Amino acid sequence: MKKEEYENKIQKLITWAKAYYVYDEPIASDEEYDLLARECLEFEKNNPDLVNPNSPNKRVGGIVLEGFSKASHLSRMWSQEDIFNTKELEDWIKRALKVGDNLEFFCQPKFDGVSLNLIYEDGILKQAITRGDGQIGEDVTQNAYTIQSIPLKIDEKSLIEIRGEVVIKKVDFESINKERIKNNEVPFSNPRNASAGSLRQLDPNITAKRKLFFNVWGVGQNSLNFTKTSEMMKYIFSLGFIEAPMQTLVKSIDEIENIYTNMVSKRDNFPMLLDGMVIKIDDIPTQEDLGFTQKFPRWSCAYKFPALEKTTKLKDIILQVGRTGVITPVAVVEPVLIEGANIERATLHNFDEINRLDLKINDSVIIIRSGDVIPKITKVLVDRRTGDEKEILKPTLCPDCSSELLVEDIMIKCQNLDCPSRVVNSIIYFASKNCMNIDGLGDKIVEQLVREKKIFDILDLYSLKYEDLEALEGFREKKINNILNAIKNTKGSELHRVINALGIEHIGEVASKQICFEFGLNIVDVTYEELIKLDGIGEQMANSILEFMRVNKDIVLKLFKIIEPTVVQKIEAEDNVFKNKIVVITGTMTKSRNEIKEILENLGAKISSSVSKKTDFVIYGEDAGSKYDKAVELNIKLLTEDEMNEVIKN
User: Fold this and answer.
1) How far apart are CA 318 and CA 274, in angstroms?
2) Any bridge partners for residue 164, and if so which?
3) What is the arithmetic mean of pLDDT over 61-67?
4) What residues are annotated to the active site?
5) Mean pLDDT estimate for the chain
């Protein structure tokens, strides 16, 4: 994977992560998300200096929503490293065995819900906080009080964090949705979303009616004197928390696999959704020795369940238009119930996928889902064809604006820059967190503003006035002022954020930084020859920038005039050990790789992602791996983080 492809994929992953963790409105299946995250993670491991700082792989979860006050966890709530097969399980255990033999493993069912941290002091429930970003979450204490499975008082007087998953039983989920349909409300897409929506209700009375259930899975800060997780959990359950079934202590991979297989076979019989099995090293001192990565505890992992399959029938294909004009086909299928979710649509990616599957309207198909809203079609059941099937034709006109479409490799694109769908999606991208970060300007609001003809392009955002918004449905004084202030606060943003926000095809955040650092505001007049000289800017990327500026130069210049972006000047470093040297950074250190990269770049170093004979230094930390080995083999100068700091100091 090249870095431009990585940037495109990581932007998609960030969008998916935000939809899932922040807004509880998943737009991709768990399987799709896991696959894309693993692809990006593989690139990030091999190219640590190119890692997007906002990569979900570097994060624990989402950010705090408005509506509840923020609250800090006493100790961090970590995510789990996902494993998917026996080989990955074996690799995980091999790493664990580095600190000791004869390990025991505590296995627990992994419930598919919303993580919650309960803080007890003097035996009284003082606070309930959602995971949030792992350090700061939402204070939902009043709602937690309404959950019957959460004790309000326990027989443990020390300060303690008890953590678990808020879920909803499948039968209660069905009842809630029947009631919502009866009241002309939109039904929840799956039990996980019902749990999230119910826990985050501003009215605790509504939460109380939803029959939420709290499953304990662990402990955060505590002063308990246990040396085994299994014994500690037994004590926690004795305090009044309900013990989940199939929690087991085992000693071998074979035993883990047996428990896992048994759990998979019984997943449908569980009253709540399960999406895997958590495996923890039982010995707490060993856990402390192993410690944590930036995101995961090294002593725990989640063995994910295989995706679920069902048979249904393809009824239709609808076409969606993205911000770059790419037309994406979406399958409409006969509704099928998979683990509480009523599935009516499936992703198809592109028309090559339709051809590969030999998919036709009215085909019987196998659909696969793994805890998601939008699953995918994996197979056509050709032997069930009756003769009523219809060919799926590639479109020649845009489904939204009726413009003629362009076929570009496997993509079909609308070239009309004024296409309503393109306009909406380009503004959504412009306002997103990793671009201009216009807080409060979400997808639905952008769609509403375009639909009401309040804005026609990104420039119109900067002309919005209070009176333009006050007549719109759902817009009140606080909301209007928040949006207008958020737009105003983008003025003076760094130039590379503005360029990234324009959504130039093949140009992500890293490329935007590189180009803006080199050319500044002259980017609008840059030539092919100038661009192609830059390391990592290939022919496709150069042509994409040139074509975008040719078509949109006037808009870009107007935007520059409004925003007055900050241009970072290129500063020549004074003579030092690292100036003009090629440096590779590998392993985990006290500072993030991006911080170390910035320090070295400010000293004039050239940061590389791979070790070769041309490499001058390798700065290494914990778990350095193959790059360290290659540096030793090539006799390249190795420095620890402390040694690097000493060199810089002297």
Assistant:
1) 32
2) 116, 216
3) 46
4) 110
5) 88
Q: How many CB atoms lie within 10 A of CB 394?
A: 12
| Predicted local distance difference test score (pLDDT) of residue 370 | 62
Measured CA to CA, the distance from residue 559 to residue 28 in angstroms comes to 33
Q: Given CA atoms 376, 379, 384, 390 in this order, what sign does their dihedral have? A: positive
Q: What stretch(es) of the chain map to CATH 2.40.50.140?
A: 308-411
3-state SS of 284-337 is HHHHHHHCECCCCECCEEEEECCCEEEEEEEEEEEEEECCCCEEEEEEEEEEEE
HEC secondary structure over 507-530: CCHHHHHHHHHHHHHHHHHCCHHH
Q: Residue 489 contacts by C-beta under 8 Å, 6 or more apart in sequence?
A: none
**Top CATH class, 3-55:** mainly alpha
Query: Is the distance from CB of 59 to CB of 295 less than 8 angstroms?
Result: yes
Asked whether residue 66 carries a pLDDT value surpassing 60, the answer given is no
Give the dihedral sign, CA 123/129/130/131: negative
What is 582-649's CATH topology?
A: Rossmann fold (3.40.50)
Assess contact for 14 and 434: CB atoms under 8 A.
Answer: yes
Structure token digits, residue 273 = 């959704």
Q: Is the pLDDT of residue 63 over 50?
A: no
CA distance 512 to 113: 38
Instruction: Name the residue type at position 289.
Output: D
* Residue whose tokens read 């029947």: 178
Q: How many CA atoms lie within 13 A of 560 on its CB side?
A: 17
- The CATH fold of domain 308-411: OB fold (Dihydrolipoamide Acetyltransferase, E2P) (2.40.50)
Comparing CA positions, the residue from 129, 159, 145, 123 lying closest to residue 239 is: 123
Higher pLDDT, 602 or 116: 116
What CATH architecture is 70-304?
2-Layer Sandwich (3.30)
Report which residue type is found at 189. S
Which residues of the chain form CATH 1.10.150.20? 420-563
| pLDDT digit string, tens, across residues 155-171 | 999 999 999 999 998 88
Interhelix angle 3-17/30-46, nearest 10 degrees = 140
Q: Report angle CA 348, 61, 493 to the nearest 5 degrees.
A: 90
Whether 464 and 529 have beta carbons less than 8 Å apart is answered as: no
Q: Which CATH superfamily groups domain 420-563?
A: 5' to 3' exonuclease, C-terminal subdomain (1.10.150.20)
Give the tokens for residue 557.
């210049």
Q: Is the per-residue pLDDT at 251 higher than 50?
A: yes
Residue 419 in this model has a pLDDT that exceeds 50: yes
pLDDT tens digits, one per residue of 420-430: 999 999 999 99
Helices 253-266 + 86-96 axis angle, to 10: 140
SS (H, E, C) 27-86: CCCHHHHHHHHHHHHHHHHHCHHHCCCCCHHHCCCCCCCCCCCEEECCCCCCCCEEECCH
Cα distance between residue 617 and residue 232, in whole Å:
46
SS (H, E, C) 397-451: ECCCCCCEEEEECCEEEECCCCCHHHHHHHHHHHHCCCCCCCCCCCHHHHHHHHH
- CA dist., res. 215 & res. 270, Å (int): 13
What average pLDDT does range 570-584 have in this prediction?
Answer: 82
